[in-house]
């Protein structure tokens, strides 16, 4: 079965950095997309970033563009999200998700989800 496991979250001061990871298993790590989403209490799930395995193209939400970078290590079946210049409004549970078709920021287009990792940014 497909499994996605996020790690690397934690507490950081505003302006700091974190790198969260998504370790994938149970599927061939080719021809897919991995998206990062986040959800804060009382808010909907927001698309943050996405990467396509076929060509490595990346996408970013407007709120994180220029601050976050998505990357992949195919040998380790792992996708990373490097988060720099963190702001309190970045506080959320961060989820990675798998889509077989391609990148989007619509959660319903993703087939499998991880359990999430908490990122808290203090002011």
Outline the structure in words.
The protein is mainly beta. The protein is built from no helices and eleven strands. The relative contact order is 0.32.
Count of separate DSSP helical elements: 0
**Largest sheet at a glance?**
7 strands, mixed
**Can you write the helix and strand succession as a string?**
EEEEEEEEEEE
Query: What's the N-to-C terminus distance?
Result: 40 Å
Question: What is the overall silhouette?
Answer: globular
Number of strands: 11
Task: Using the CA coordinates, give the radius of gyration.
Answer: 13 Å
Mean pLDDT, to the nearest integer, reads 94
Helix proportion range: under 10%
Strand content: over 45%
Oligomer: single chain
Unreliable residue runs: none
Class by helix and strand content? mainly beta
Features:
mainly beta; 123 residues
Concise structural overview:
The protein has 123 residues and is mainly beta.
Detail the topology: elements first, then pairings.
Elements: E1 3-7, E2 10-13, E3 18-25, E4 33-39, E5 46-52, E6 58-60, E7 68-73, E8 78-83, E9 92-99, E10 112-113, E11 117-122
Parallel strand pairs: 2-11
Antiparallel strand pairs: 1-3, 3-8, 4-5, 4-9, 5-6, 7-8, 9-10, 9-11
């Amino acid at each position: 079965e497909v499994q996605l496991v996020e790690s690397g979250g934690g507490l950081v001061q505003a302006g700091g950095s974190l790198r969260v990871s998504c370790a994938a298993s149970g599927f061939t790590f080719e021809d897919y997309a991995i998206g990062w989403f986040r959800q804060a209490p009382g808010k909907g799930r927001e698309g943050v970033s996405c990467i396509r395995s076929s060509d490595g193209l990346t996408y970013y939400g407007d709120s994180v563009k220029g601050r976050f970078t998505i990357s992949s290590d195919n040998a380790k079946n792992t996708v990373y999200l490097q988060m720099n210049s963190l702001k309190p409004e970045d506080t959320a549970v961060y989820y990675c998700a798998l889509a077989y078709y391609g990148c989007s920021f619509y959660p319903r287009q993703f087939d499998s989800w991880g359990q999430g990792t908490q990122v808290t940014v203090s002011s």
